[in-house]
Write a structure and sequence with these properties.
Elements: E1 3-7, H1 11-19, H2 28-37, E2 44-50, E3 53-64, E4 67-75, H3 84-98, E5 103-109, H4 116-127, E6 131-137, E7 144-151
Parallel strand pairs: 4-5
Antiparallel strand pairs: 1-2, 2-3, 3-4, 5-7, 6-7
Helix pairs in contact: 1-2
Length: 162
């Protein structure tokens, strides 16, 4: 299966992907919010396309020139485990690094909340080079949110003005 990773915005496709992943995205209001974010120009939007159909999405938000956040990443269950998530993350890392971004973060459900799907999510981000920074209660939902970070390789090796 040939997969293309492209810059593309499609709220309906994001909705279809998220609705196919109820273990992670089972709250209709959250799906509505992510679908709206997918067409909002303040987010970077990459989509994985297979046979002309979106099968994966990665939305980013650049908070500062030095840092960005993965706001949403999801891969349709029919193609999970085929390397699409890895390719989405590698593409955003390459794009951000080329723009001298130094740090990429992602938030997910923390390990103090036992949940097999989110344990898979944390393991994926760990394999992708992210390290756990801190866990907070009531940050984005009533339970624990884990913040993971990854340093990015950039052409700027300095650390600001001295």
């Amino acid at each position: 299966m040939a997969i293309d990773i492209i810059e593309h915005r499609d709220g309906d496709a994001v909705r279809r992907i998220l609705e196919a992943l109820p273990e992670w995205f089972g709250i209709p209001e959250a799906i509505d919010s992510y679908a709206a974010d997918a067409v909002d120009d303040s987010y970077g939007s990459l989509m994985a396309i297979a046979d002309g159909e979106p099968v994966g999405v990665l939305l980013t938000r650049r908070h500062f020139p030095e840092s960005a956040e993965i706001h949403l990443m999801a891969v349709h269950p029919d193609v999970r485990g085929t390397g699409i998530g890895r390719r989405l993350v590698e593409r955003v890392v390459d794009d951000l690094s080329a723009d001298d971004c130094k740090l990429l973060s992602v938030h997910t459900v923390g390990p103090s909340f036992e949940n097999a799907p989110y344990a898979q999510t944390r393991a994926f981000y760990t394999r992708m080079g992210f390290l756990p920074l801190e866990e907070h209660e009531d940050l984005e939902w009533p339970g624990p949110t884990l913040i993971l970070v990854r340093a990015l390789a950039t052409t700027d090796r300095g650390y600001g003005e001295r």
